[in-house]
Specification:
With about 325 residues, the protein is of the alpha/beta class. Helices cover about 45% and strands about 15% of the residues. It folds into two domains: about 230 residues, Type I PLP-dependent aspartate aminotransferase-like (Major domain) (Aspartate Aminotransferase, domain 2); about 90 residues, Aspartate Aminotransferase, domain 1. It contains 14 helices and twelve strands. The strands form three sheets. A seven-stranded mixed sheet has the order 2-8-7-6-5-3-4, with helices on both faces. The chain has a three-stranded antiparallel sheet with strand order 9-10-12. A two-stranded parallel sheet has the order 1-11. Bound molecules: pyridoxal-5'-phosphate (PLP). Pyridoxal-5'-phosphate binds next to helix 3.
Length: about 325
Amino acid sequence: MIDFRSDTVTRPSLKMRNAMSQAEVGDDVYGDDPTVNELEQWSAVRHGFDAALFCSSGTQANLLALMAHCERGDEYLCGQQAHNYKFEGGGAAVLGSIQPQPIENEKDGTICLKKLEQAIKPDDSHFARTKLVSIENTINGKVLPLKYLARLRTFVNKHQLSLHLDGARVYNAATALNVDITEIAQYFDTMSVCLSKGLGAPIGSLLLGSTEVIAKARRWRKVLGGGMRQAGILCAAAKIALTENVEQLKVDHENAQHLANQLNSISGFEVNLAQVTTNMVFVKVDESIDIHAIATKLKDQDIIISPSTYMRLVTHLDLSKADINNFISALKVALNK
Ligand SMILES: *Cc1c(COP(=O)(O)O)cnc(C)c1O
């Protein structure tokens, strides 16, 4: 299977499966699972936070962060394109009674500080209470500059707001910037990290933050049905993802470059190379091409894409350069009928 839909399709390695089968476990709701405890303690230190919480998914980790920072009737400022506004089922409003205040993202994925400032509500009973800014990095494959993060930290300090990072792919950002993960993490009160995307763990995300915020999040996780028992089985794989699969992201990014260049050599396909800095390639497909029919043909050869006229292709550890070349050859054949 050559699957370009997402880096979520990565499968756990044999080493992960072995570690899972050998993991020492206990009941994590009682705080008894040594493998969970070890992962949470190690992750907190590794990312420069006081505490960490292992969560079932990125959606859950983000929701817990919102619910830990905001009470009923509070609001968070976020990008119009933010995953935790647009793609998480309205969870903050549905389950947290928290109002999102989305603001149009700039072309580079940042949110303009002036626009953020204008969106902060006055202390007046007409308004929701603005408590939090939430941003995403990478956002649609784009890396936010460290300088922007520093300015944003100064901004939230000035306005006494908290700052959350949806860092589903924050390791891709650190890899692209060639910095340690803490160089990014240092600016945030909380950060979520997906372990089940490019890092290759089967299940799970981390939420990182202060002892107090993580204690609140742990309580909400139980309320939301996310208190897991022998979760050490999952954390054993997660530890390998964080210690052994980070290096691989560099290869994924090189493969995305290669894929982008190859696509640009085919007429009717256009990739803006300047925007290919991590593991995502967005390709404009000419209207004259029936990309849905092409996708069906590719599927017969076990090649999976999400067909669209503005199509996202994602590279990951289960996709090699040879797979990309096979895809390009098959695509050329399919285009010639
Ligand atoms: C995938 C993703 C999430 C959610 O992760 P799930 O584990 O799929 O719930 C959150 N934010 C961003 C930016 C993502 O890409």
